[in-house]
Write a structure and sequence with these properties.
InterPro entries: YjbR (IPR007351), YjbR-like_sf (IPR038056), YjbR/MT2646/Rv2570-like (IPR058532)
Largest sheet: 6 strands, antiparallel
Number of helices: 4
Strand content: 25-35%
Protein name: MmcQ/YjbR family DNA-binding protein
Keywords: DNA-binding
GO molecular function, one term: DNA binding
Strand order of the largest sheet: 1-2-3-4-6-5
Number of domains: 1
Order of helices and strands: HEEEEHEEHH
Pfam families: YjbR (PF04237)
CATH architecture: Alpha-Beta Complex
């Protein structure tokens, strides 16, 4: 994997919870009970993709620019994008995608939930 920092980056966001969905082979990262990132394993049990939510226009643009960014694996192909963890997407771009996915999902929560999460009052 070319992004060993990714796990800490995902888990460091305020209010994030993480679990592993055995039947999907996914490590899910959620804020306010809503998925913002999933690390997907391949048939060998190795982490191979991270799937993130983006604005549809930005996701389409990035998929056109980078072969290692594809429509979301087992997700809505308009809103979700998967990044090959063994690929060549620049670190700063992947960090930006993580931040945008988190902010997009956080922004979809109620103002009260957002405030509680950002002030550290919520565990989920």
């Amino acid at each position: 994997m070319n992004y060993p920092w990714l796990y800490d980056e995902l888990a460091s966001k305020p209010g994030v919870t993480k679990d592993y969905k055995v039947e999907w082979q996914w490590t899910r990262y959620q804020v306010g009970g809503k998925l913002f990132a999933a690390i997907c394993r391949d048939e060998d049990g190795q982490d191979s993709l991270v799937t993130l939510k983006l604005d549809p226009a930005e996701g389409a643009f990035l998929r056109d620019q980078y072969a290692d960014i594809t429509p979301g694996y087992y997700m809505n192909k308009e809103h979700w994008n998967s990044v090959n963890l063994n690929g060549a997407v620049p670190d700063n771009l992947l960090k930006d995608m993580v931040e945008k996915s988190y902010r997009l999902v956080l922004g979809g929560l109620s103002k009260k939930a957002q405030r509680e999460i950002l002030e550290g009052k919520s565990e989920s």
